[in-house]
Amino acid sequence: MNQILYPGPYTINNRPIILKPWTVNFDFNKEFPTKIPFWVKFSKLPMSCWGKGSLSQISSVIGVSIYADECTAKQTRISYARMLIEVNVTKPLPEKIVVMDPTGNKFEQEVFYDWKPKFCPKCSMVGHTCTKKMPQP
Ligand SMILES: [Zn+2]
């Protein structure tokens, strides 16, 4: 399962395929899942933040970290760290997050997504965004 799940994201005709580990209570008839695992890139992440603990702490700002890709885990490619994170797509995804390195310095870290699902807050549905503006509260 992991050999299939981790090399993603996959697309067919430029449409993303969402892969999720099966769970016992999974139900096809229920509404579309809102917690979706996808790959997130942290480019130019300082080396001091590449520990397993640091990476999962940084990822926790965005969602629940599932897996670091092999190059990230082995630190064989240091231009960016890449993590598979389960994200709640009903919440806005940050483009930047504030990270504190082990010496206590805070810095802004850019966040890149291989693919970002569309979420329509008006219809509470994944897959599109309504063009009409929501009424302001
Ligand atoms: Zn909509």
From TrEMBL:
Name of the protein this chain belongs to: DUF4283 domain-containing protein
Organism: Solanum pinnatisectum
Lineage: Eukaryota, Viridiplantae, Streptophyta, Embryophyta, Tracheophyta
